[in-house]
Design a protein that fits this description.
Layout (H helix, E strand, L loop, with lengths): L1 E5 L4 H12 L3 E6 L7 H10 L4 E4 L5 H10 L2 E6 L6 H6 L1 H21 L4 E7 L22 H19 L4 E7 L1 E3 L18 H10 L5 E4 L11 E2 L1 E3 H16 L3 E7 L5 E2 H12 L5 E4 L8 E2 L4 H6 L8 H14 L6
Parallel strand pairs: 1-2, 1-4, 2-3, 4-5, 5-6, 6-11, 7-10, 8-13, 9-14
Antiparallel strand pairs: 9-12
Helix pairs in contact: 1-2, 1-8, 3-5, 5-6, 7-11, 9-11
The protein binds uridine-diphosphate-N-acetylglucosamine.
């Protein structure tokens, strides 16, 4: 079976390509390297000892996408490609709506024209908005607080409508919680451009001495120690969730959303403490004000993914901290 992976050179995409190859799928990757690096392709081949086809192109180029489908016998698609920085999406909403929605619509159109109707879409826990209480279940009312999140929610809605119009589609909407960690080889990992927005890449850069100290965004939340609680998930567990979703949706029709998290929340300070302990490094930090748009607590109810996809996480917070640090310390400049 050949799987087209859009954005397969990115952080979650590259880990998913590794899992697909290790499960003997044929893989075709499309990526324009706008937020990734060509070296990741060599690393994936090195880890898996397997070859795969690669096309350097932007999804907006429909003619080129048609060619990818013409040249390969694609059975299903995992769609990662898209802009993903929350803060930037607030500054440049039109760029986010234009890029994320248009490229997605073009992709689905080309899929339909080629009779490819199996899809795994990368959504986000951000679609649960500010008002739902954790543990979050898939059936809760959805809302968003920024254009990035809105593109995820809009695409989920488009896919629901697509299935209503044509019940041959089989679609898994994967709502990620907070992916961290890296492949245990230390050869692939997250390589953010510039100063990281997210907590774990910030911690690893402080540990390495590239950044002076961590700012902890608020210690007055109603949580165990006042700092924000999130459901951190090892990126390799997350990648395995895609393979499970793909396998399930190859043999059934319908559109289903699944939470991919561990079901357990850790506070910012608990994560810092775990990182320091596992890696024997110190993370200097200061408490600053809350970041706007943050919720106090966000963690998943993972019973649906466990029951229907037969998937559960295998790695714990120590694995996540160890693998994040291994990647950062062996690759201080990412893939550059
Ligand atoms: C963020 C996005 C979310 C996206 C996800 C992708 C926001 C508001 N949400 O989730 O839409 O799907 O990343 O991974 O940006 N923190 C600090 N100091 C830092 C960075 C973060 O204290 O320098 C805290 C945050 O306040 C939060 C926790 O760490 O409590 C996790 O933050 P982060 O890694 O940015 O993820 P989310 O905000 O949960």
């Amino acid at each position: 079976m050949a799987i087209l992976v859009t954005g397969g050179a990115g952080y979650i995409g590259s880990h998913t390509v590794v899992e697909l190859l290790e499960n003997n799928f044929d893989v075709v990757v499309v990526d324009d390297f706008s937020n990734s690096h060509p070296e990741v392709l060599n690393r994936i081949k090195e880890i898996t000892g397997r070859e795969f086809r690669f096309y350097e192109q932007n999804l907006m180029d429909k003619a080129k996408l048609e060619k990818v489908f013409a040249e390969n016998s694609i059975d299903a698609v995992i769609h990662f490609a898209g802009f993903k920085a929350v803060g930037e999406s607030v500054e440049k909403p039109l760029d986010y709506y234009y890029n994320n929605l248009t490229s997605t619509l073009l992709l689905y159109d080309v899929m339909r024209n080629n009779g490819v109707k199996k899809l795994v879409f990368t959504s986000s826990a951000t679609v649960y908005g500010l008002n739902n209480k954790s543990p979050l279940t898939e059936d809760l009312p959805l809302s968003t607080t920024n254009p990035y999140g809105s593109t995820k929610l809009m695409i989920e809605q488009i896919l629901q409508d697509l299935y209503v119009s044509d019940d041959e589609w089989s679609i898994a909407l994967l709502r990620y919680f907070n992916p961290i960690g890296a492949h245990e080889s230390g050869r692939i990992g997250e390589s953010p451009n510039g100063i990281p927005n997210n907590l774990m890449p910030y911690i690893t850069q402080v540990a390495f001495g590239k950044l002076e100290q961590l700012s902890v965004f608020g210690d007055d939340y109603d949580t165990v120690d006042g700092t924000g609680v999130r459901d951190y998930i090892h990126v390799v567990d997350l990648a395995k969730g895609h393979v499970k979703a793909l396998e399930k949706h190859c043999s059934r029709r319908g559109v289903e959303a699944y939470n991919l998290g561990t079901g357990q929340g850790y506070s910012v300070l608990q994560l810092v403490e775990a990182f320091e302990k596992v890696n024997s490094v110190e993370i200097p930090y200061q408490i600053t004000g809350r970041r706007s748009g943050d919720v106090a607590v966000c963690y998943a109810d993972v019973s649906k993914a466990s029951l229907i996809l037969n998937w559960k996480t295998e790695k714990n917070i120590e694995d996540m901290c160890r693998d994040s640090w291994k990647w950062q310390s062996k690759n201080p400049e990412g893939y550059r």
